[in-house]
Amino acid sequence: MSSVAPVRSSDDGSGPARRAGRAVGRALHFPARGIRRATHAHGAGESGLGRLIELHAINGAGDMMITVALASTVFFSVPTDEARGRVALYLGITMAPFTVLAPVIGPLLDRLPHGRRASMAAAMLARALLALMMSGAVATGGIQLYPAALGVLVASKSYGVVRSAVVPRLLPPKFSLVKANSRVTLAGLLATGAAAPVGAALHMIGPPWPLYGACVIFVWGTFAAFTLPHKVDEAKGERRARLSTHEAHSKRPGLRTVSRSVLCGLLANASMRALSGFLIFFLAFLLREHPLAGQSAAVSLGIVGVSAGVGNACGTAVGSWLRARAPEVIIAAVLCLTLGVAVLAAVFFSGLFMAVLGATAGFCQALAKLSLDAMIQRDVPEAVRTSAFARSETLLQVAWVMGGAIGIVLPLNGVLGMSVAAAIVALGTTMALRGVLSTPHHHPGTSRPRVA
C-alpha cells in the first residue's frame, strides 16, 4: 500500500474538475467583461439601457433556439411539396389567431404601466414553459405543436411591444432613439447568430434539445427582466391622451390620426416586411429545387441566408451612428434602393443577384424599421404609445405572413419571383415618397422627443 500514490484531495483546488472549472471561468471572464463593457458604453450602464440590451440578446438567442427546432420539423425534414403544405399549415394555424389577439395586447399592456418588468418576465417565462411543451411533439410534428407555437409567438410579440415602449425611458444623455433602438436590435441579431450554430449542434443530439436550450435561456431572461431599473415601471407624467387633438370626441383613435408621415412610414415598412416573408419562403423552396451553380441546396440556402443576415446587421449598425433628423427620408431612400436592386434581379436573374437582393433587403429593412420606431416614439403620446406599437407590429406581422403566403404558392420561376418582389417594394416606395411629401413643418418652439 505504501507504493500507491496518495490521492489529491479536491479541497486543495488542484483536482482535474476544479482546474477545468477555473479554466472555463477564465475563458468566459474576459468575453463577459468585453460584452458588458460594450453594452454599458456611452452612459448606457448608468441609464439602464445596457440591461435592456442584454435582455434583448437573451430574447434573440431563445427565439433562435425555437426557430431551429421548428424549422427542422416543419421544413427540412420532408420533401418540397410536403414542406409547402406544412409551412402553409403553420402560418395558417399560428398567424390567423394572432391577428385577432395582437390588437388586444397593446391596450392590455397600456393598463399595466407599473408592471412593465413583470410583463417582460412573464413573456420570457411563458416561452420557457411552452418550449418544454413543444419538446414532446417536435419529433413527430403533430398538430399539438402549432397551438404552442402560437403561444410562443404571442409571448414574443408581447415582449417586443413592451420593449419598444421601455426604450425611451432608458435613454442616456445625448442618445437618440434611433441609436438606442439600433443598439438593442444589433444585440439581438448578434445573439441570434451565435445561438444558431448552438441550436444546430443541440439538434444533432435530438430534436427536443434546442427546445431544452430555449427553456434554459428564457428562464435566465425571466430573472434578467427584473434587473432593469425601477423607473421602467414608473408612470409619473403619464396620462391618458388621445392620438389626435383635432378629434377630441373620437372613440377609436388610430395611427391615421397621429400624422400622415407615420401612417405612410408604417405602410412602407409593411411592404418591406412582406418582401422579407416572400423572399424567405420563395427562395427557400426555389433553391431546394434549383440550387446555385455548383452548390448543394443547403449551401445555396446558407449563402442567401447569410447575405440577408449580414445586410440586416449592417443596417442596424449604420442606424447606431446615423445622425439624420428625418426618418421619413431614410425610409424613402432605402425603399428606392431596394426597388432598384429588385428590378435588376428580375431583369438579370442569377444566383448573385438573389444574394445581393437578400443583403439589400436585410440592410434596408433594418434601417426602415429603426426609422419607423423613431417616428412612433416621436409623434405618438406616451400614454398610448404601447397600443400604437401593438397595432404597428400586428400590421407588420400580417404583411410578413401575406408575403410568405405568396412565396409558398408562387410557381418556382426565378424571373417571375423577382418581378413579384419588385412589385411589392414598388407599393411601399410609393407610400414612402408620399410620407416625405406630407411631412409637416414644425414650428421652432414645438417640443419634440429626440429622434436622431
Give a verbal description of the structure:
The protein has 452 residues and is mostly helical. The chain has 14 helices and no strands. The chain has helices at residues 16-39, 44-47, 49-74, 80-110, 116-135, 145-166, 177-205, 209-225, 260-289, 297-321, 327-347, 351-379, 385-409, 414-437. Helix 9 runs antiparallel to helix 14. It is globular.
What's the structural blueprint in terms of helices and strands?
Elements: H1 16-39, H2 44-47, H3 49-74, H4 80-110, H5 116-135, H6 145-166, H7 177-205, H8 209-225, H9 260-289, H10 297-321, H11 327-347, H12 351-379, H13 385-409, H14 414-437
Helix pairs in contact: 3-7, 3-8, 4-6, 4-13, 5-6, 5-8, 6-13, 7-10, 7-12, 9-10, 9-11, 9-12, 9-13, 9-14, 10-12, 11-12, 11-14
Gap from first CA to last CA: 77 Å
User: What is the strand tally?
Assistant: 0
Q: Based on helices, strands and strand pairing, what is the structural class?
A: mainly alpha
Mean pLDDT: 75
Unreliable spans: 1-13, 237-253, 442-452
Helix-residue proportion: over 70%
Beta-strand proportion = under 5%
Sheet with the most strands?
Answer: none
Order of helices and strands: HHHHHHHHHHHHHH
Please tell me how large the radius of gyration is. 23 Å
> How many helix segments?
14
The shape, in one word, is globular
